[in-house]
Specification:
The protein has 95 residues and is mainly alpha-helical. The protein has one domain. It has helices at 12-22, 36-43, 56-72, 76-93; strands at 9-11, 53-55. The radius of gyration is 13 Å and the shape is globular. It starts with 8 loop residues before the first strand and ends with a helix.
Length: 95
């Protein structure tokens, strides 16, 4: 079950509730724990430019932007963090 279960878009409060309560506790395919604070940081990826509702298309576009940012990053720690964020977003968005 992802965040977009039979919905075209998701509101910011619904995204916050999902990340607090229903989102996976571990990074997919690993044993890396996603603490509540890390999950709330992922919410900050979607700034105010996305408005009150985040559509599935905007979600996918943000993932592509993060992949571009990852390729431009030269520090291994920052690259690893972006890679984990992308992997987590793909999991909760069922992409």
């Amino acid at each position: 079950m992802g965040i977009y279960d039979k919905r075209r878009n998701v509101s910011r409060p619904a995204l916050t509730r999902y990340l607090k309560k229903k989102a996976p506790r571990y990074l997919p395919g690993t044993k890396i724990r996603m603490t509540p604070s890390k999950r709330m940081k992922i919410k900050e990826v979607f700034g105010r430019e996305y408005g009150d509702n985040i559509t599935r298309q905007e979600f996918q576009t943000k993932i592509r932007h993060l992949e571009k940012e990852k390729s431009r990053t030269h520090t291994p720690s920052k690259m690893r963090e972006i890679k984990r964020t992308i992997k987590y977003l793909k999991e909760i968005g069922e992409i």
